[in-house]
Amino acid sequence: MYAVIRTGGKQYLVSPGEKLKIETTAHENGNIEFSDILAVSGEAGKFESDLTGAKVLASVVGEGRGEKILVFKLKRKKQYKKMQGHRQNFVEVKINEILVNGKSFKEEAAK
């Protein structure tokens, strides 16, 4: 069971019980609801045709900042150098449930 969601200008392939880091998003009481669903598959190789009302429910695990990325610009022979760092904020979420066409898919119990 998996779904393809779009958030923060990126697309993610998610399944129930999976943790992933997304760009900072507003959330209430530690819960996030993704309603921009691009595809849902209940069985291998079969996709749901009607995605109206489909949503993915997730809970916030933590927040933080990513690794530092250094941006260095140089123009030879012009005495121009510029160094800049950047750390992107993120929210780590755990996918709890995928809802589509009245069906609910949750994480399967550990065997």
TrEMBL record:
An annotated Gene Ontology molecular function: structural constituent of ribosome
Keyword rRNA-binding attached: yes
InterPro entries assigned to the protein according to its UniProt record, in alphabetical order: bL21-like, bL21-like_sf, Ribosomal_bL21
Cellular component, GO, one term: ribosome
This protein's UniProt keywords: Ribonucleoprotein, Ribosomal protein, RNA-binding, rRNA-binding
Pfam family, any one: Ribosomal_L21p
Transmembrane segments: none
GO annotation (BP), single: translation
Keyword Ribosomal protein tagged: yes
Purpose: This protein binds to 23S rRNA in the presence of protein L20.
Family statement drawn from the similarity comment of this UniProt entry: Belongs to the bacterial ribosomal protein bL21 family.
Assembly information from the UniProt record: Part of the 50S ribosomal subunit. Contacts protein L20.
Name this polypeptide is given: Large ribosomal subunit protein bL21
Protein source organism: Tunturiibacter lichenicola
